[in-house]
């Protein structure tokens, strides 16, 4: 029989009730107001005042009941209020404030029991005879910001002895009316269009985004100066808008600058009291409207404010649709790691909170507000501003699991600076506003400048000096063959004579296409000694491609296994200073030749020799194919330092074979992906090994951890980054133990290099913000051979220094303190950024998590048909990798399909060959859609089928993918409780959304309960629940 005392809840209350259960009573939705009371406090009058307030406002004595997974509310009779009193006068005066804050924090965070009806909590801390702190804490399900003003007004009136009249309308009547009122179809259609395909705010974070949204909050307070506020008001008057619109527009601008997006959604609360009778009702009546900021087309500040005004007016005209209805209409994908629809809010209060009352309002007491840390936060970032006279006091509340206080302090300062800049020049295009202040600009330039370099001699000349000083030292080892420096110079001179005989002159290019071996190194050096630059071509290339590249380069001669040949068809002359021209593949798939000068190579070698501590005793493996610029990092620094190259022989021998045969190897220079693959293959590394240089791809923290576990600190592990256009490498860093637990950085600029992280308009971005990594200074290539158009496109004038800068097309950001330990963190290619269901996904982030599984050797993630597909190498099951990823990544970041392979295909230079990855044969559902078989699977399938009205659910089906949502999840838990007496947390279904995984959780919970029963009790329980259990 229906209980007449139970009444429906509003859609907003239903959402908060669900979130309360999902987050196990976390304080995210607690509202607290704390005031300092100075004067003689009448505690009896205060208690009576609270009693009067709870009697007047029935929402404050409402209990919420779970009725088969659906919440209902019941208003309870008035009952006395208990004020928790804490006396701190026994403590030394200097300790009382700290102790009071600790007690207040605990009181604010203490969970509420929504079922018992005590949803207002009062705490009184006595610091001195006439000095008290009074805290009032309510749950958001029964109150909102407007309500706290009413509550304190009524508390003051009652404390002063004035009677409180009943509100114009009871709260339950208001809720019942709103529950039954259908939203206007025109309003719903407006929002469906206004928020179609809403963007996800992707601010750069200091910590990886966890799989589930955290609620711990931090706060940074700041003040907007009076002069700026006056300018805001003047501009608002000029544009016929409100100061709120100006402040909101500039906040959207700040978010756009930090995220790189031009489509920004910001939530802002509205009172929800469109009827005058509701202005005196305490309850959860407020709602949030979404203001979609459009910063496209490079508008001026004036135009942006106009756009914001239009969006805000439209939102206010069409308010009244419940947030839950809006989310359902938009059919947004579920993401437990962030708030739906908007990830940031902006709130402007026109006056200080009503808690700042006067002596006349709170008899004989001086009442001032007392700020406390926020108990929690439901979005990533929230800006709350309050007009205080001519100034604005503001606080940025942030998710502590994503951001650090220093990052948010920079955001606050940037917001204040932007307000001043926008109001000073409202007609200036926004892309001309600086992203950082002058001081930060200088710090970024200092952090991005590598150590100075002296002018260096050419690498070929330095090799000749080494040969003259140590002619009989071993320059190269190839199997059993030993080649001295004298023999190397003799062989190089032989090639130079033959090239001269074929007409090669200074400024010519020579194609060198030889297999690994002493003759290859001699031919490269001989080309230089002939005054030409070399074009290295992989001898294994198909003949047609080989010929096409030689023709494209316009080489004068070709050196191949058959000898030295003049090439007549076309001759290209380059600067005599050209050391080599190396073909790379572009994003268009068309190869382009990068020309590198002798000065650039000399600068790089001059940095490498001391940085890698290379000397005559070193043995470096020459592993890289001649077609990739790493060969120059292996060959020339080693020979300049007088060391020995250990050549990887042509034929069946592999690097592990060479390492086993050459225990004297001290240095390895390997592609990152290949090194990671070797970790499970090579069990005995050369005992003399002291340095491993990595480059080419992002290194996984798990691989660094495995290396450190095996080698400790005995072997240096240097991570490098650099495009061919910056002469091999541009940044480097020694990876230490800390890099085994975070995304390993790519370091700082090497000698003579300048590194900038810029936005698309060439502005320095703020620390922590992702932008395009651009390089300048020593080591920059001359451009693209015969492609002046492409050279002009990628090599641009350096606005922050002399010469040109190169736009790498790579994304990066500065991490760490700019003044102490700044490092660059690689964030992926601009052209590898993926978007899945409207959310930007960086493959490298997902790959890093997958590679963190102990049985995964290597991982790569690609997008296929708007879904993520992961390829993992290792002895591991796909389900195990998926479960690992689901525990660490947002749901949208977990690959739909996971393909396990013995090893990932690699290109000739040791990078993962994306084109060779096999297509996933089956979708994730097809792979895991076997019918339920166990008792637990059958029970869960029946419950899901009933609630979702879906038949034939398989063990691999995802509850949320087949129609489930958060509120239905509560009913699943309620049905399970009714069927077998097991009360699982709601979060279990979010963590294990497939039928099979959830059924296993049910079995585990039952097993845990049965383990605590006697045999007789267990048998009785099994008999009572039947075969389904």
From TrEMBL:
GO terms for biological process: amino acid activation for nonribosomal peptide biosynthetic process; lipid biosynthetic process; monocarboxylic acid biosynthetic process; secondary metabolite biosynthetic process. Gene3D superfamilies: 3.30.300.30, ACP-like (1.10.1200.10), Chloramphenicol acetyltransferase-like domain (3.30.559.10), N-terminal domain of ligase-like (3.40.50.12780), Nonribosomal peptide synthetase, condensation domain (3.30.559.30). Pfam families: AMP-binding (PF00501), AMP-binding_C (PF13193), Condensation (PF00668), PP-binding (PF00550). GO terms for molecular function: catalytic activity; phosphopantetheine binding. Its cofactor is pantetheine 4'-phosphate. InterPro entries: AA_adenyl_dom, ACP-like_sf, AMP-bd_C, AMP-bd_C_sf, AMP-dep_synth/lig_dom, ANL_N_sf, CAT-like_dom_sf, Condensation_dom. Residues 931-1006 form the Carrier domain. Keywords: Phosphopantetheine, Phosphoprotein. NCBIfam families: AA-adenyl-dom. This is Non-ribosomal peptide synthetase. It comes from Micromonospora robiginosa.
């Amino acid at each position: 029989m229906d209980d007449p005392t139970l009444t429906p809840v509003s859609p907003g209350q239903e959402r908060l009730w669900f979130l309360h259960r999902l987050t196990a009573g976390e304080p995210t939705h607690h509202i607290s107001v704390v005031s300092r009371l100075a004067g003689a406090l009448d505690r009896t009058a205060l208690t009576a005042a609270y009693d009067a307030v709870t009697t007047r406002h029935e929402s404050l004595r409402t209990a919420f009941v779970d009725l088969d997974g659906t919440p209902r509310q019941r208003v309870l009779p008035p009952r006395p209020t208990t004020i928790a009193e804490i006396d701190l006068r026994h403590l030394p005066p200097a300790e009382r404030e700290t102790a009071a804050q600790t007690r207040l924090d605990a009181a604010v965070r203490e969970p509420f029991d929504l079922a018992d009806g005590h949803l207002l909590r009062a705490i009184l801390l006595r610091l001195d005879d006439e000095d008290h702190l009074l805290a009032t804490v309510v749950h958001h399900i029964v109150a909102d910001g407007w309500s706290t003003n009413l509550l304190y007004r009524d508390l003051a009136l009652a404390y002063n002895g004035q009677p409180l009249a009943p509100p114009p309308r009871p709260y339950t009547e208001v809720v019942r009316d709103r529950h039954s009122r259908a939203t206007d179809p025109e309003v719903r259609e407006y929002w469906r269009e206004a928020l179609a395909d809403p963007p996800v705010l992707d601010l750069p974070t200091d910590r990886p985004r966890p799989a589930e949204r955290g609620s711990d909050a931090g706060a940074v307070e700041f003040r907007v100066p009076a002069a700026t506020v006056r300018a805001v008001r003047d501009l608002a008057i000029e544009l016929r808008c409100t100061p709120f619109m100006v402040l909101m527009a500039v906040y959207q601008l700040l978010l756009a600058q930090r995220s790189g997006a031009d489509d920004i959604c910001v939530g802002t609360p509205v009172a929800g009291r469109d009827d005058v009778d509701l202005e005196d009702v305490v309850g959860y009546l407020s709602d949030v409207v979404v203001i979609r900021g459009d910063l496209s087309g490079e508008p001026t500040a004036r135009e942006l404010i106009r756009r914001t005004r239009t969006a805000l007016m439209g939102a206010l005209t069409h308010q009244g649709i419940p947030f839950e209805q809006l989310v359902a209409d938009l059919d947004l994908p579920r993401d437990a790691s962030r708030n739906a629809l908007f990830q940031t809010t902006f709130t402007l209060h026109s006056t200080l909170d009503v808690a700042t009352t006067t002596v006349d309002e709170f008899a004989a007491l001086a009442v001032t507000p007392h700020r406390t840390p926020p108990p929690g936060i439901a979005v990533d970032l929230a800006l709350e501003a309050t007009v205080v006279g001519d100034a604005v006091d503001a606080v940025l509340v942030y998710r502590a699991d994503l951001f650090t206080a220093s990052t948010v302090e920079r955001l606050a300062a940037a917001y204040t600076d932007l307000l001043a800049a926008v109001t000073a020049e409202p007609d200036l295009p926004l892309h001309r506003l600086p992203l950082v202040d002058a001081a930060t600009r200088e710090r970024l330039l200092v952090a991005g400048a590598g150590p100075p370099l002296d002018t260096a001699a050419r690498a070929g000349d330095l090799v000749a000096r080494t040969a003259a000083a140590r002619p009989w030292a071993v320059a190269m080892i190839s199997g059993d063959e030993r080649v001295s420096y004298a023999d190397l110079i003799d062989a190089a001179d032989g090639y130079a004579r033959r090239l001269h005989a074929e007409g090669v002159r200074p400024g010519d290019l020579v194609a060198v296409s030889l297999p690994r071996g002493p003759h290859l190194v001699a031919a490269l050096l001989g080309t230089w000694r002939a005054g030409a630059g070399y074009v290295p071509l992989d001898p294994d290339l198909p003949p047609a491609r080989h010929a096409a590249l030689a023709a494209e380069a316009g080489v004068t001669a070709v050196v191949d296994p058959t000898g030295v040949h003049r090439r007549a068809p076309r001759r290209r002359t380059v600067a005599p200073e050209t050391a080599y021209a190396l073909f790379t593949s572009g994003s268009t798939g068309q190869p382009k030749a990068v020309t590198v000068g002798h000065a650039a190579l000399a600068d790089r070698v001059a940095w490498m020799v001391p940085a890698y501590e290379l000397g005559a005793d070193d043995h470096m493996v020459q592993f890289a194919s001649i077609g990739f610029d790493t060969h120059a990092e292996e060959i020339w620094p080693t020979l300049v330092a007088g060391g020995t190259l250990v050549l990887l022989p042509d034929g069946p021998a592999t690097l592990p074979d060479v390492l086993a045969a050459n225990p004297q190897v001290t240095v390895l220079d390997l592609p990152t992906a290949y090194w990671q693959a070797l970790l499970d293959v090579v069990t005995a590394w050369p005992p003399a090994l002291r340095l491993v240089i990595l480059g080419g791809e992002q290194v996984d923290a798990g691989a660094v951890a495995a290396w450190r576990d095996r080698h400790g600190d005995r072997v240096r592990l240097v991570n490098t980054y650099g495009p061919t256009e910056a002469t091999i490498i541009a940044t480097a860093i020694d990876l230490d133990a800390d890099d085994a637990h975070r995304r390993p950085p790519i370091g700082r600029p090497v000698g003579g290099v300048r590194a900038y992280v810029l936005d698309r308009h060439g502005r320095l971005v703020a620390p922590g913000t992702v932008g395009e990594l651009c390089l300048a200074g020593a080591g920059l290539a001359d451009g693209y051979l015969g492609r002046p158009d492409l050279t002009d496109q990628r090599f641009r004038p350096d606005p922050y220094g002399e010469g040109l800068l190169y736009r790498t097309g790579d994304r990066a950001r500065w991490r760490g303190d700019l003044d102490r330990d700044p490092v660059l963190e690689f964030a992926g290619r601009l052209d590898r950024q993926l978007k899945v269901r409207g959310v930007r996904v960086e493959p490298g982030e997902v790959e890093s998590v997958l590679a963190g599984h102990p049985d995964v050797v290597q991982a790569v993630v690609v997008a296929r048909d708007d879904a993520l597909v992961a390829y993992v190498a290792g002895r591991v099951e796909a389900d195990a990798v998926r479960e690992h990823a689901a525990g660490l990544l947002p749901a949208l970041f977990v690959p739909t399909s996971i393909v396990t392979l013995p090893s990932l295909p690699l290109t000739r230079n040791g990078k993962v060959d994306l084109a060779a990855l096999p297509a996933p044969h089956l979708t994730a559902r097809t792979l895991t859609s076997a019918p339920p078989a166990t008792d637990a699977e059958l029970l869960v399938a029946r419950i899901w089928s009933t609630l979702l009205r879906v038949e034939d659910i398989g063990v691999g089906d995802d509850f949320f993918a087949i129609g489930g949502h958060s509120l239905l999840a509560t009913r699943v838990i309620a049905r399970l409780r009714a069927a077998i007496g097991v009360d699982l947390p709601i979060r279990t279904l979010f963590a294990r959304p497939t039928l099979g995984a959830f059924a296993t959780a049910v079995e585990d919970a039952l097993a845990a309960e049965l383990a605590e029963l006697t045999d007789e009790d267990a048998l009785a329980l099994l008999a009572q629940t039947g075969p389904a259990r």
